[in-house]
Amino acid sequence: MPFPKPFYRWRPHPWHGLEVGKQPPSLVQAYIEITPYDLVKYEIDKETGYMRVDRPQRTSSQPPALYGFIPRTFCAAEVCGLSPRSSKGDEDPLDICVISERPIARAEVILNARVVGGLPMVDRGEADDKIIAVLETDNMWAHVSDISELPSVLVDRIYHYFSTYKLIPGHEVDIHIDKPYGREHAERVVRAAIKDYQDNFGS
Questions:
Q1: Which of 8, 50, 179, 197 has the highest CB neighbour count under 10 A?
Q2: Tell me: the pLDDT tens digits for 92-102?
Q3: Over the range 52-85, which residues count as b (16 or more CB within 10 Å of their CB) and which as e?
Q4: pLDDT tens for residues 131-143?
């Protein structure tokens, strides 16, 4: 009997094999690497697509939202062009934090997320923006269309997490984060990351 469509004989690579989303740059797909309950930072292994242990969290700070990336995005020249403090993109897929009312304690899931804003982060001179989004079907947050509609304490927690998640006692961390930006600029960053992916890997 014929296989149903779509059918994957093998597991698609989370970065290259999944779609960017239903209506990018406003409604995107996110692949979740870590949850607010994880005390270890996991990240996708670019070669195999499996999850790799990066490092245990060095501080008591935990991710305040689901954290992962948007498939088929890449941070290179186009993303760097939107980041005045950076000298290049970090050459990773575009990071995304997704806010959900109900606890989602499982990583390696995909979900649809509505882009509402972001953080302009520069890590060692490289553009490393963090897109902020809400779960598309969330009963509490689905109506939010811009970061200004989120509670400031929630945005502050995301800001604080990324300001501290690489801290090592006795060492300086070369991270700079300017004030959060809204939906319009976030969508420009997503478009730029899609363009960077197409320029580097094809469509």
A1: 197
A2: 999 999 999 99
A3: eeeeebeeeeebbbbbbbbbbbbbbebbbebbee
A4: 999 999 999 999 9
